[in-house]
TrEMBL record:
GO terms for molecular function: methyltransferase activity. The lineage of its organism: Bacteria, Pseudomonadati, Bacteroidota, Flavobacteriia, Flavobacteriales. Coiled coil: none annotated. It comes from the Bacteria. This is RsmD family RNA methyltransferase. InterPro entries: PG_1098_Fer, SAM-dependent_MTases_sf, Thump-like. Pfam families: Cons_hypoth95 (PF03602), PG_1098_Fer (PF22013), Thump_like (PF18096). Residues 276-319 form the PG-1098 ferredoxin-like domain.
Length: 382
């Protein structure tokens, strides 16, 4: 790490941020103490930082291998997670590149970071020194730390590895590393508040069936792409009602909250298309709040399986896209027109629709192919 930080090498890295990396790879490194692969890795890291964690765009910051960059949270999701968190002792059992830890621990007096990868923890330690942040950096397997630890914490955070040794993705809790089901009891002994970051693909009903003391679930999307699911485990929680919140960061859409049990008793109303069409954002869709959305916003579904909603009034508090629409016949679609095409609960895919009607992507209007309770329909935004 010391070699890559030499001023002349850092200068070369900064001078080649826009250079084609394939052409660089074919060249010999001008520095005997740093290979071209090491140099390119730092260039890649700075490029990722430009779009993912801009607070690391400082002189002297070192970036880890691609996998660690890929697995690290973005700055926007980390900052959101850190809202309203504070206390005395913070423990991150799966530090990784330390993005989450940096923001989550900001309002804690004592910070302990556990990471079994010795090179990675040294990079994090160096970067935090550059950033002026202090912590206790421990290079150890978390299972060993938990066996030897006698301290209690106000908050424990962990992001279990979701890949096996062959780098295949895993989703069940018992297949993750660490196995949360095996260590949950131990975690609850040393902290009342535990936050676990999980894959957005994990099933919520499965989660609440296997985990104890779940108090809250957060589903975080960025620009309508669901990035992560957070489980809050609070051993002192006295309520059986689990709060689910959804957020679509980098949008002007509001957060949406509901109690998990509410969905079981909620009943959707149905209607043919009215003046406005409501399309929930992907965080809401992931939450499974299909009937609660209808009840809470007093809007009606088009079909049990479409998850499109409709109303005569425009509700700007809705967490998703709102389109003013009209129902059209297929013959009204002109060859060569451009539309943003949406197809849900309809036999034709967007590609098949474009081919059948000889239209293409683009333009300012939406064309929505879906179903109401009376059958297949086509809606056009106005």
């Amino acid at each position: 790490m010391e070699n890559i930080l030499k001023p002349e090498i850092q200068q070369f890295i900064n001078a080649n941020l826009t250079t084609d990396l394939h052409s660089l790879l074919l060249k010999k490194s001008p520095f005997p103490e740093a290979s071209m692969l090491e140099i390119i890795q730092q260039i890649k890291g700075k490029k990722v930082a430009q779009r993912k964690f801009r607070f690391l765009l400082k002189e002297g910051i070192v970036f880890p291998p691609n996998l660690n960059l890929e697995q690290a949270s973005s700055q926007s999701t980390a900052e959101f997670k850190a809202k309203n968190l504070q206390g005395k002792n913070f423990l991150d059992l799966t530090c990784g590149f330390g993005i989450d830890a940096y923001f989550l621990s900001e309002n804690f007096e004592k910070v302990i970071l556990i990471e079994q990868n010795s090179q990675l923890i040294e990079i994090v330690k160096h970067n935090w020194m550059i950033l002026g942040r202090k912590a206790n950096f421990i290079n150890e397997k978390l299972e060993i730390f938990l066996t030897e630890n006698t301290e209690k914490f106000d908050l424990i955070y962990l992001d279990p590895a979701r890949r096996d040794h062959e780098k295949n993705k895993k989703f069940l809790l018992e297949d993750l590393s660490p196995n949360l089901l095996e260590i949950q009891e131990k975690l609850s002994e040393i902290s009342d508040e535990i936050i676990v970051k999980l894959s957005p693909l994990i099933d919520i009903s499965y989660l609440v069936s296997v985990l104890k003391s779940v108090s809250k679930i957060q589903i975080i999307a960025v620009k309508n792409e669901v990035k992560e699911l957070l489980v809050f485990i609070n051993s002192s929680s006295k309520s059986d009602e689990i709060e689910v919140s959804t957020i679509n960061l980098e949008s002007d859409e509001p957060e949406f909250f509901y109690k998990l049990n509410e969905e079981k008793s909620a009943i959707s109303a149905f209607s043919e298309p009215l003046k406005f069409l409501y399309i929930p954002n992907n965080a809401v869709l992931k939450s499974g709040a299909f009937n609660v959305v209808s009840e809470k916003f007093n809007i009606k579904k088009l079909h049990p399986n479409s998850h499109f909603y409709t109303s005569d009034k425009r509700l700007n508090s809705f967490p998703g896209r709102i389109l003013e629409v009209e129902k059209i016949e297929a013959k009204a679609i002109k060859k060569g027109e451009k539309f943003n095409i949406i197809s849900k609960n309809h036999p034709l895919s967007p590609e098949e629709i474009k081919k059948k009607y000889k239209i293409s992507d683009g333009g300012n209007s939406y064309l929505i192919f879906t179903q109401s309770q009376k059958g297949k329909i086509i809606l056009k935004s106005v």
